[in-house]
Amino acid sequence: MAADRATRATLSQALDLFEDRLASGGDRTCIRIRGAELSVDSVRTIDGDHDLTAQIVPAFAKSHLVLAEEASIEDCQPLLR
Asked: What share of the chain is helix, strand, coil (3-state, %, to 5)?
């Protein structure tokens, strides 16, 4: 999850670059992300009337969520040679 619009834009650019490189031969795409791991403890609807914790939290327990506070696309090709 991106913390702000600028970080979201960088993550989106990284995904576009990954897809372009994959289509043209599979060169790797490297991205550095700074942030903190998130955990989902409870889930309620916006109006607060419904607790969805039992349905949602188990699905997120299998995932690693990160609040990306900063992201940068880096050239990792020299590291792979």
From this structure: 40, 25, 35
Backbone angles phi, psi at 10, to 5 degrees: -65, -45
CA distance 52 to 19: 35
The string of pLDDT tens digits covering residues 43-74 is 899 987 899 999 888 888 778 889 999 999 98
Domain that holds residue 42: 5-75
pLDDT at 81 over 70: no
Whether residue 53 lies inside any domain: the answer is yes
Q: Are strands 65-74 and 30-38 parallel, antiparallel or unpaired?
A: antiparallel
